[in-house]
């Protein structure tokens, strides 16, 4: 493994960091999060038009840049550093790879170029708080998370030569504003029970959407209700292929999320170091106290260790290996530690609405709820590796 970044990767990071520094400061971040969509369309247009970010990991034949998951993960590190609210995660990390993996040639040709250009946004809609389960991050995704043939979730039924969907998906990333919904629905009844993916335009008749109040306002979520909606099946009816594709995308998404969390943790630490260098007690900066140095040194070590794990997971994802879940677990813990210490060391202003520190703390808590928590990510990875298989342990 060559741990050095290529000149192209360095340029992506440098250019994106400069753009976000100019266009996504604390004031712009709050203004974007308070809009109906939860993000700034002008910033999204700049990310798509100037940098080609939505199509970074899509092949050139579909209008993408042709880079790998590694470059996309490095871009997520920079967006995570400033907590930039954008459709990048839902569109480029979750929806686009699934469409590329499962879609028919016609579907790919119709949808992927528009996703790559940023003209179309998309998201993966799964019922309830089941995103981590659907992506096989905290357990196997072969269960009844999509509905299981019972009331609740999203159900699909045949209607002539097409399909119709009925049900509700809650806590959908950008679900209130995405132009295209990639809906996971249960079909087949008891005898042929399986989960399939369907394409649904966000403005289709019978689709009712609303933005939810989320813990992390920089990660907007929506509720999607499907009231007998006409849908197009993505690819074929092989439920096993769908679950396998979700698991593969889950691992690469975990690597991107790990890099994003590392960027946020690094920024939270930088804010804290800057503050303790200015704030004085007993006639000297509190950053000069040994106890403060020790605590921030521990945070620095945690962030650097998480960065190494996240970079490896991004590299592994581009080479057909899977290490995303473990990297995400370490990154989430590093972000929680860095954000918690930021609130503590900023003292009375650390938890006020006007300061940035609470935004990073909420990102740490919100991501743990959506994609974790860390102990479940590690437990599933251990089960997959059969670390604690009784048959493998000598008594």
String of helices and strands: HHHHHHEHEEEEEEHEEHHHH
Q: What is the percentage of strand-forming residues?
A: 15-25%
Q: Residue ranges: pLDDT <50 for 5 or more in a row?
A: none
The assigned structural class equals alpha+beta
CATH second-level architecture of the largest domain:
Up-down Bundle
Number of helices: 12
CATH class of the largest domain: Mainly Alpha
CATH fold descriptor of the largest domain: Butyryl-CoA Dehydrogenase, subunit A, domain 3
Total strand segments:
9
Biggest pleated-sheet summary: 7 strands, mixed
The tally of domains stands at: 3
Report the radius of gyration as a whole number of Å: 21 Å
Tell me the helix content: 40-55%
Can you tell me the CATH superfamily of the largest domain? Butyryl-CoA Dehydrogenase, subunit A, domain 3
Mean pLDDT across the residues is 91
Q: Gap between N and C termini, in Å?
A: 37 Å
CA-based shape: globular
Verbal overview:
With 395 residues, this protein is of the alpha+beta class. It has three domains: 7-120, Acyl-CoA dehydrogenase/oxidase, N-terminal domain (Butyryl-Coa Dehydrogenase, subunit A, domain 1); 123-238, Beta Barrel (Butyryl-CoA Dehydrogenase, subunit A, domain 2), CATH 2.40.110.10; 243-392, Butyryl-CoA Dehydrogenase, subunit A, domain 3, CATH 1.20.140. The protein is built from twelve helices and nine strands. The strands form two sheets. Strands 1, 2, 3, 4, 5, 6 and 7 form a seven-stranded mixed beta sheet that branches. A two-stranded antiparallel sheet has the order 8-9. Strand 4 and strand 5 form a beta hairpin. Helix 4 packs parallel to helix 8, helix 9 packs antiparallel against helix 10 (324-345) and helix 10 (324-345) runs antiparallel to helix 12 (374-384). The model has no long low-confidence stretch (mean pLDDT 91).
């Amino acid at each position: 493994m060559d741990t050095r970044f290529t000149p192209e990767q360095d340029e992506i990071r440098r250019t994106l960091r400069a753009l976000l520094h100019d266009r996504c400061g604390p004031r712009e971040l709050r203004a974007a999060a308070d809009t109906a969509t939860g993000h700034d369309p002008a910033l999204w247009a700049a990310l798509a038009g100037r940098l080609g970010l939505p199509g970074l990991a899509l092949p050139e034949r579909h209008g993408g840049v042709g880079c790998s998951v590694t470059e996309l993960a490095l871009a997520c590190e920079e967006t995570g550093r400033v907590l930039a609210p954008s459709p990048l995660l839902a569109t480029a990390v979750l929806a686009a790879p699934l469409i590329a993996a499962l879609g028919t040639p016609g579907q790919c040709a119709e949808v992927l170029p528009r996703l790559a250009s940023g003209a179309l946004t998309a998201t993966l809609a799964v019922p309830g708080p089941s995103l981590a389960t659907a992506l096989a991050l905290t357990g196997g995704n072969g269960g009844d998370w999509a509905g299981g043939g019972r009331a609740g979730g999203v159900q699909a039924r045949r209607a002539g030569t097409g399909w119709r969907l009925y049900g509700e998906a809650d806590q959908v990333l950008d679900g209130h504003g995405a132009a295209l919904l990639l809906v996971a629905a249960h079909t087949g009844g008891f005898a042929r029970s399986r989960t399939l993916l369907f394409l649904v335009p966000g403005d289709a008749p019978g689709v009712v959407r609303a933005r939810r109040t989320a813990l992390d306002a920089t990660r907007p979520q929506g509720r999607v209700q499907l009231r007998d909606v006409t849908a197009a099946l993505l690819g074929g009816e092989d439920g096993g292929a769908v679950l396998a594709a979700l698991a593969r995308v889950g691992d690469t998404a975990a690597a991107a999320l790990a890099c994003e969390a590392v960027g946020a943790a690094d920024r939270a630490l930088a804010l804290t170091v800057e503050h303790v260098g200015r704030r004085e007690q007993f006639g000297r900066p509190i950053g000069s106290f040994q106890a403060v140095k020790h605590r921030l040194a521990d945070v620095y070590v945690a962030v650097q260790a998480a960065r190494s794990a996240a970079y490896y997971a991004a590299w592994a994802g581009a080479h057909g290996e899977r290490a995303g879940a473990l990297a995400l677990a370490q990154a989430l813990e590093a972000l929680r530690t860095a954000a918690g210490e930021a609130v503590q060391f900023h003292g009375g202003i650390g938890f006020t609405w006007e300061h940035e520190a609470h935004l990073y703390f909420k990102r740490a808590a919100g991501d743990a709820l959506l994609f974790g928590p860390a102990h479940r990510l590690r437990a599933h990875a251990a089960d997959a590796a059969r670390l604690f298989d009784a048959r493998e342990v000598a008594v």
